[in-house]
Amino acid sequence: MEQVRADGFDEFAAARWSALLHVARLLTGGDRQRAEDLVQEALVKLWFAWPKVAEQAPEAYVRTVLVRLAARSARRRWWGERPVEQLPDRADPGDMSSAVAERSRLEAALALLSPKQRAAVVLRYYEDLPESQVAQALGCPVGTARSHASRGVARLRQILSDAVRPVG
Amino acid sequence: MDDFERDLSRLMRDTQQHTPYEPEHRQRLHAGIRSRRRSRLLWKAGGSAVAVAGLSVGLALLPSMLTRAQPADHRPQPTTSPTTSPDGTPTTAPPAPSTTPTEQPETTLPATMTGGVTPSGPTSEPAPDPTPTATASESRSGTTPPATPPPSPTRTTAPPSPVDSEEPSASVYPE
């Protein structure tokens, strides 16, 4: 029984890992480490709910958990970061392809939104969810979710247009 | 959905990079699950221990609370003793006052004890002995013949009314 549960869960985790990590990364404004932590925590929660949600909608469940964890983690001030003697290796600026540069720009812009706005924008424009499901994931009324999404998009429009605007 | 929103949607999807689910991810995930399961068990055990402790404290306190209530119930007994013994001597009188007048209504019990005669009157033999006490029961049963013998004690237990009779009697005794 436990083995069947573990097998199904592992299959789901392996199949959705990449997509969940990307959502988490968008939700955290590009923080890869935090995104991994969020996905891990969401999947741990999913494990305990697996018998109930496995046959229904594990994806929706884990997405909702992810959004709420991201909103909660955004309120924390300290992330358990500790100073180290040697900095980890970073990619050289010259190695950045246009796709990576674009992603960095998007993540930097998303990081400037409030957690709720960011979650609403990601769920609406990346997951392509209807407003009702966005509201359900955010745990707020539909009108509030719509407001978060529209304000987030307006802010992104302003940020990204400023970034692209030619100097001088 | 305007152009910007379409671009935003496309940008979000295009920037997704494939990240394989590696064994280390799996190990880390299962380690997290084990850790969470352990903490859950600890929480459950702690909750059970608290619940058991609460129940045991409650059960330990319950008897003491009940015993506090019991004395009030047993107080009526002293009131009966004076009525039963009156035939013997006047010394019995003092206890009666001690039993406060408030408890008098319950003196009906004593009547049944000593003058159990009166309630079951017609058949019971003890009637003759507890003659003095019969006064109270007399007023209640009224019809029982055994009531006739108590004429002498009647002077002490003058009050006729059944329930109220005890109060006055208590006040009388002190005198």
From TrEMBL, chain A:
Supply the name of the protein: SigE family RNA polymerase sigma factor
Which part of the chain is the RNA polymerase sigma factor 70 region 4 type domain?
A: 105-156
Q: Which InterPro entries match?
A: RNA_pol_sigma-70-like, RNA_pol_sigma-70_dom, RNA_pol_sigma-E_actinobac, RNA_pol_sigma70_r2, RNA_pol_sigma70_r4_t2, RNA_pol_sigma_r2, RNA_pol_sigma_r3/r4-like, WH-like_DNA-bd_sf
Query: In the UniProt record, does the keyword Transcription occur?
Result: yes
Residue intervals of the RNA polymerase sigma-70 region domain:
20-79
Family of the protein in this entry: Belongs to the sigma-70 factor family. ECF subfamily.
Native organism? Streptomyces iakyrus
Q: Which UniProt keywords apply?
A: DNA-binding, Sigma factor, Transcription, Transcription regulation
CDD domains documented for this protein:
Sigma70_r4
